[in-house]
């Protein structure tokens, strides 16, 4: 699934910045670099793309040379993981605790039941219950750096991987150049600083009712991470209700009365994405959760 040739990078000059695009992590990625230096933008994008491809290679569940493949191939035996993987597992464990188990990186197996393709087909309770027998972080033994995942269970870092990749790429680019830039991996973003002193980056958010046709809101982003979770692109219709793709790992079903969309601004993209996901999982308590954390957020219901 990796797209690594340098020719995959396409650059264009726009008003006030250069945009360079490529494909990684299952979707479109881009780097916006302030100014008109196309050569600089392409060089920086090459670094960002290389990091996105590295993270995809390392943590993809679809590759037979990834860390996740090695963990699953252990078939229940203990395995020692590297520091980067250990840090992500620690973070995932923290998210599991904060959400009372609703966020769980062992819940990826539920994809075998759900197809969030905009249709009307939902799984039956028996199918979901059977898969839930293979879900549960509490069944995993994790004593850094040794991990033991019971045979038949799987880990899936998709809930944090893309946001982590954004932050990693941004850190590499900020160490390389002081030029203002915006990293955007499939709608998960990080801005190093405003495009110009009096010109923040303008970020459009999907209108949940008219995806791809218009932006429901435009946010002026100066610096930090920005992430959105919701049902605009991945959903299923059931009993006249739109069910989004974020599943409560305790039930195997989307949360009742979840917001249509949650956008959070935070110091890092990973923090923003985590808070947005936890808010969706909080359902009717989303606003209260984000208010308690002091987050800057926008919710569409």
Structure description:
With 301 residues, this protein is an alpha+beta fold. The protein contains seven helices and 17 strands. The longest helix is centred in the first third of the chain and has 22 residues, at 38-59. The protein is globular. The protein starts with 9 loop residues before the first strand and ends with a strand.
Low confidence ranges: 1-7
The span between the termini is 35 Å
Please write the string of helix (H) and strand (E) elements: EEEHHEHHEEHEEEEEEEEEEHHE
Q: Report on the biggest sheet.
A: 8 strands, antiparallel
Number of E-state strands: 17
Mean pLDDT: 92
What does the radius of gyration come to?
A: 19 Å
Overall geometry comes to globular
Give me the secondary-structure category.
alpha+beta
């Amino acid at each position: 699934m990796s797209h690594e040739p340098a020719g995959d990078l396409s650059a264009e000059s726009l008003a006030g910045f250069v945009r360079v695009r490529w494909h990684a992590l299952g979707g479109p990625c881009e780097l916006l670099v302030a100014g008109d230096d196309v050569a600089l933008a392409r060089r920086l994008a090459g670094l960002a793309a290389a990091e996105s491809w590295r993270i995809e290679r390392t943590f993809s569940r679809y590759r037979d040379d990834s860390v996740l493949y090695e963990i699953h191939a252990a078939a229940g035996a203990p395995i020692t993981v590297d520091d980067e993987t250990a840090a992500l597992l620690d973070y995932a464990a923290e998210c599991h605790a904060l959400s009372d188990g609703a966020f769980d990186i062992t819940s990826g197996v539920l994809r075998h039941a759900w197809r969030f393709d905009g249709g009307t087909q939902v799984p039956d309770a028996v199918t979901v219950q059977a898969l839930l027998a293979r879900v549960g972080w509490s069944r995993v033994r994790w004593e850094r750096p040794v991990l033991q995942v019971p045979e038949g269970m799987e880990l899936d870092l998709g809930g944090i991987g893309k946001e982590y990749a954004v932050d990693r790429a941004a850190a590499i680019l900020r160490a390389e150049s002081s030029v203002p830039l915006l990293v955007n991996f499939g709608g998960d973003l990080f801005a190093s600083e405003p495009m110009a002193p009096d010109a923040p980056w303008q970020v459009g958010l999907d209108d949940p009712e008219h995806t791809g046709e218009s932006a429901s809101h435009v946010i002026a982003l100066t610096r930090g991470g920005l992430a959105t979770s919701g049902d605009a692109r991945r959903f299923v219709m059931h009993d006249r209700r739109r069910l989004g793709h974020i599943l409560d790992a305790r039930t195997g079903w989307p949360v009742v009365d979840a917001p249509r969309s949650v956008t959070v601004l935070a110091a890092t993209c990973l923090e923003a994405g985590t808070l947005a996901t936890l808010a969706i999982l909080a359902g009717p308590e989303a606003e209260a959760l984000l208010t308690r954390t002091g987050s800057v957020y926008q919710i569409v219901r």
